[in-house]
Amino acid sequence: MRPGENLRMWRGLSLRLLLAILVASFVAAQTGAAQNQTTRAQNAPAGNAQKGKDAFATHMCATCHGPEGQGAVGPALAPPPRALPDFTRYVRQPAGKMPPFTPQAVSDADLADIYAYLQSANPAPPSNLSNLSGNAQNGGRIYVADGCYECHGRVGQGSQSTAAPRIGPPALAIDGFARYIHAPTGNMPPYTSKVVSDQGVADIYAFLKSLPPAPAAKDIPLLNQ
Prior knowledge:
The chain is mainly α. It is built from 9 helices and no strands. It folds into 2 domains: 49-120, Orthogonal Bundle (Cytochrome Bc1 Complex, Chain D, domain 2); 129-224, Cytochrome c-like domain (Cytochrome Bc1 Complex, Chain D, domain 2, Orthogonal Bundle).
């Protein structure tokens, strides 16, 4: 074998060896990452569904995702479409209009509880309220007669003193709005269909929809009264 051929042979062997080492390193790195993800998932805190229900309400998740995670302005979350680690990452660094929630705002333990609640939630099927035509004038009368204004304000602006959220105009679709009235979260008492009929809900919804966007209660202290 000539010296030049010997050199080319060794160079070829060295290149193949280098490629083999790089491939083996890449496979080992991918395997290690997968094992780390599995370990993190296994070590994730076990959630408490009842605590999660309370946290879901406290952090106002229901405002966008519905009281049972069935979806409203935001997408449906029940049952969760992501594994807990991915769910946590999305809450921390969401896409779209959802604001990020830091660990200081919502702890990992709270997120595990919320995840457990969403896994246990059984969202009600959509109603036929969207087919009803609401009467805004009658809705305004029901809104006052049933005492909705006492917590949510005369024009649905919400109140800091009662911790009631802003509902005028409604951010929820009418089906989500109805579900929240019948099975609310937080301190609001439930209003069954015997108390407020589907037509009554449609009328209240029409009334709130007819209102111009109200200033937030925190901006005008008198609206908190």
